[in-house]
Write a structure and sequence with these properties.
Elements: E1 4-7, E2 10-11, H1 17-28, E3 34-41, E4 46-53, H2 55-72, E5 88-97, H3 101-119, E6 123-127, H4 138-142, H5 145-152, E7 174-178, E8 183-189, H6 194-204, E9 209-210, E10 231-232, E11 239-246, E12 251-258, H7 266-279, E13 284-290, H8 295-308, H9 317-328, H10 338-341, H11 343-347, H12 360-368, H13 376-399, H14 408-443, H15 450-480, H16 482-491, H17 497-522, H18 532-559
Helix pairs in contact: 1-2, 2-3, 6-7, 8-9, 13-14, 13-15, 13-17, 14-15, 15-17, 15-18, 16-17, 16-18, 17-18
Length: 560
């Protein structure tokens, strides 16, 4: 697996689009790096940029962006709502795939060292890249902001990790580190009052608020035995929040950083703010996402709100995202495009979904063309997907049947199970075609020298073995849906029993068709020892499917 990291530099310019474009142009010059998102904010005068790629290329692109920002942004003239201390205010690296947090932190240190030495910018490490826990928190490092750093940087305990101990007036300082995925999330209120917004923020953020005697705002600060202010913790863990007024929108917002969305998910933060706002006579009108969000966070939110509505959770991924967007009000201030805002959607390769992105009509005509792919393997996978879809439909209809409210959870679970299998089977439609193409490519390799012949022979063998594994996986996936279909035939909405029966027939076709592909592809191997276990298990799955579906069809016929 390739090592993939994400980098989210925050540049202190949100109004001059020409400056922003010049910075991002330097990032895009680095080959192998994908610029995922550029999110400027006028009121904050700050642009959040998101890029991904392999580590070496990402830190090169980040360096070039930091360098250009230091040339174009004059911090002595900067004003904005968001706390800041430099032209590139903060630049975190986030592990995405194939890389540990420790390795990511090492790359952050390399980037920080280069920025400090080559650009003469003071750099502070933070989060997982900072060994000194007393200065690993971004808000602690940035305290005093740009205006206060001319003095702060002279203090021995605030000597930069890299770069000069002089604060450059033009570029300011930069914070570079490694952290888990952070969701920058703003929740909109029906008020312009920053004071009220801050009251809500203090209710929910982990740091809470300072305890005061008598009046919660005007009262004297209550101190502990060491003379330190006592704090009343907020409701949400791993959450930072402040209130501010955004003139661009004419509303106050709760600006939140969810530093670990697995601990405090977006939907939990949203409901907590709703509860606090309502207690203060306020109302949440919507929210906005700054930068990108993991797919899981959106799917979890969709399921959360569906469950609150007493509906089945077994809906499509697109429907879950739609429910999340509407429930969170993510489209209140601007349209929300999942393809641009969800990180996994930004990273996916359109070629991976070449067939399943087609309409049913297009797929049929593509199959009917003179090209040998897509062929029987892809059609088998698609038949299995349709069978799974029918079973999932029956589960959802049963979950919504009046008088069956006590069975909603059971059918919702079955529908969710069906959706997971359906997603896998749809992916297998394209996988089979890719496996076939790989065989054709291996046959096209040169075969002049002995070395070339050996390389070609090995490539053909490996591609053929893979071409056996792919339809075998189709068999296993399709076979796995039979228990769900059986439940729908026996316990589901009786008005839809034939739909479940047709689903079982589709699965039978999928297993039998994939079985033929396993056998025909295995015929191209002289030595079948590498796939003997596949052949043996495929035979078992095929026989069991045939027997099970015949029995299920008898049950369907008995019911009708």
């Amino acid at each position: 697996m390739k090592q993939i990291i994400e980098c989210v530099p925050n540049f202190s310019e949100g109004n001059d689009l020409n400056i922003i474009k010049q910075i991002t142009a330097e990032i895009e010059k680095v080959e192998g790096v994908k610029l995922l998102d550029v999110d400027p904010g006028k009121a904050t005068n700050r642009t959040v940029v998101t890029l991904v790629g392999e580590p070496k290329q990402v830190i090169e692109a980040a360096f070039q962006g930091i360098k250009k920002a230091s040339e174009l942004i004059d911090m002595s003239k900067h004003q904005g709502e968001h706390p800041r201390m430099g032209a590139t205010d903060v630049c975190p690296l986030i592990p995405v795939a194939g890389i540990s947090m420790e390795e990511t932190a090492e790359y952050a240190v390399k980037l920080a060292k280069r920025v400090g030495e080559e650009l003469a910018i003071p750099v502070y490490l933070y989060e997982q890249a900072q060994p000194n826990m007393e200065r690993s928190n971004l808000s602690v490092i940035r305290a005093g902001e740009y205006e206060g750093f001319f003095k702060k940087i002279k203090e021995p305990k605030w000597k930069p990790d890299f770069g000069p101990s002089e604060f450059p007036a033009r570029s300011g300082a930069t914070v570079i580190g490694a952290r888990e995925f952070l969701i920058a999330y703003n929740i909109n209120l029906n008020t312009k009052s920053t004071r009220l917004a801050n009251s809500v923020a203090f209710d929910v953020r982990e740091a809470g608020r300072v305890k005061r005697a008598g009046h919660p705002v005007l009262g004297e600060t209550v101190l502990d035995e060491n003379g330190e202010p006592i704090r009343i913790p907020g409701k949400l863990k791993s959450t930072k929040a402040i209130g501010w007024y955004i003139e661009e929108y004419g509303v106050a917002q709760i600006s939140m950083n969810l530093t670990n969305y697995l601990i405090t998910p977006v939907h939990v933060a949203f409901d907590a703010v709703c509860e606090s706002a309502q207690s203060r006579g306020l109302r949440v009108t919507g929210s906005e996402l700054v930068g990108l969000i993991p797919l899981k966070a959106m799917l979890d939110a969709g399921e959360y709100f569906l469950k609150k509505q007493g509906r089945s959770l077994g809906v499509s991924e697109d429907e879950l995202i739609h429910i999340a967007v509407k429930s969170l009000g993510l489209d209140e201030l601007a349209p929300f495009d999942p393809n641009k805002k969800i990180i996994e959607y930004q990273l996916r390769d359109s070629e991976d979904e070449h067939l399943i992105s087609m309409t049913a009509k297009q797929l049929a005509y593509e199959t009917a063309s003179e090209s040998p792919a897509p062929g029987g393997g892809s059609v088998s996978a698609y038949a299995g997907a349709l069978g799974t879809a029918l079973g999932t439909m029956v589960a959802n209809l049963s979950a919504g049947k009046r008088g069956w409210e006590d069975k909603t959870d059971f059918f919702s679970q079955k529908a969710t199970e069906g959706q997971h299998i359906l997603k896998k089977m749809l992916a297998q439609v394209d996988e089979d075609t890719r496996a076939f193409n790989a065989i054709m490519e291996s046959f096209a390799l040169p075969k002049g020298t002995d070395e070339e012949k050996a390389i070609r022979s090995n490539a053909i063998r490996e591609a053929t073995i893979n071409a056996c594994r792919v339809p075998f996986e189709v068999m296993k996936t399709a076979h796995a849906v039979l228990p769900m279909l059986a439940s729908m035939i026996r316990e589901g909405n009786p008005n839809s029993v034939t739909d479940a029966g047709v689903g079982a027939l589709c699965v039978r076709t999928a297993v039998a068709g994939a079985y033929l592909n396993v056998k025909v592809n295995a015929g191209g191997l002289k030595d079948k020892s590498a796939i003997q276990s596949i052949l043996d298990e495929a035979e078992t799955i095929y026989q069991d499917t045939e027997k099970t579906v015949v029995e299920l069809q008898k049950e369907v016929e008995a019911k009708i």
